[in-house]
Automatic annotation (TrEMBL):
<feature type="domain" description="DAHP synthetase I/KDSA">
    <location>
        <begin position="17"/>
        <end position="256"/>
    </location>
</feature>
<keyword id="KW-0808">Transferase</keyword>
<protein>
    <submittedName>
        <fullName>3-deoxy-7-phosphoheptulonate synthase</fullName>
    </submittedName>
</protein>
Length: 263
């Protein structure tokens, strides 16, 4: 269902009316985690000023340590909904448990499947039935074929509104958080009709790398990027070191404006 074989044309997925697909460079930006209403609103305004048309923000956070901030849960979803009403930006947010899919889908415009859950097949099937577009991160040790099979699980449940997101893979290299496999973008676009975006924040893991990796994503023809921004990363409860700050926004805006928006 997701393969290019029976789809000559690459697909456009619309999220709250915002297109992601061939000819777009859709910017999705916002805080890694929803912390407070004020922080989320400020991050959303930063995102919008850089040209973002969708707001990202995690209310359910999958963390390596069980002692790390796990997200605000439904309270975070309510904050996202309030900020959507205030800014007009549709919401992209992660769901980590099949039991929460209905709840998250009540608030989200696009459901995010994180790298750690890319082969959580029960979760993939549940989001396939949720009636919302789905973004699937590539597994941190997943092959492109495995990633496409994850999308197939969603598609098989009747939902073809799927966006693939390359977010870096685990290699021997420690200088970056993950190794951005930029070649995965054209490969996935050749094998599948689904839009393919890049997450420069979770691949680089450091602010200084986010704009260069965004440039690479634009140059290689990704259909969009998803980027962490934070009004005060030094106090962030999650992934502060990779969040862009206000001073970075003008350059980000310049980069994502390279392609004319598709209406
Ligand atoms: C995220 O985007 O918030 C996230 C946790 O990303 P990943 O699943 O790619 O680590």
């Amino acid at each position: 269902l997701v393969s290019r074989e029976n789809h000559a044309e690459r697909s456009v997925v619309r999220v709250g009316g915002v297109p992601i697909g061939p000819g777009t460079m859709t910017l999705i930006a916002g805080p890694c985690a929803v912390e407070t209403h004020e922080q989320t609103l400020e991050a959303a305004l930063m995102a919008r000023s850089a040209g973002a048309s969708l707001l990202r923000g995690g209310a359910f956070k999958p963390r390596t340590s069980p002692y790390a901030f796990q997200g605000l849960g439904e309270a975070g979803l309510r904050i996202l909904a309030d900020v959507r009403a205030e800014t007009g930006l549709p919401i992209v947010t992660e769901v980590v448990d099949a039991r929460d899919v209905e709840l998250v889908a009540e608030y989200a415009d696009m459901l995010q499947i994180g790298t750690r859950n890319t082969q959580n097949f029960a979760l993939l099937q549940a989001v396939g039935e949720a009636g919302r577009p789905v973004m699937i991160k590539r597994g941190m040790s997943g092959t492109i074929e495995e990633w496409l099979m994850s999308a197939e699980y969603v598609a098989q449940r009747g939902n073809l509104d799927i966006v693939l997101c390359e977010r870096g893979i685990r290699t021997f290299e420690k200088a970056t958080r993950n190794t951005l496999d930029i070649s995965a973008v054209p490969v996935a676009q050749r094998l599948s009709h689904l839009p393919v975006i890049v997450d420069p924040s979770h691949s680089g893991g450091h602010r200084d790398l986010v704009l260069p990796l965004t440039r690479a994503a634009v140059a290689i023809g990704a259909d969009g990027v998803i980027i962490d921004v934070h009004p005060s990363p030094e106090t962030a409860l999650c992934d502060g070191p990779q969040a862009l700050v206000r001073e970075d926004l003008a350059e980000l805006a310049e980069l994502v404006r390279v392609l004319p928006p598709v209406v």
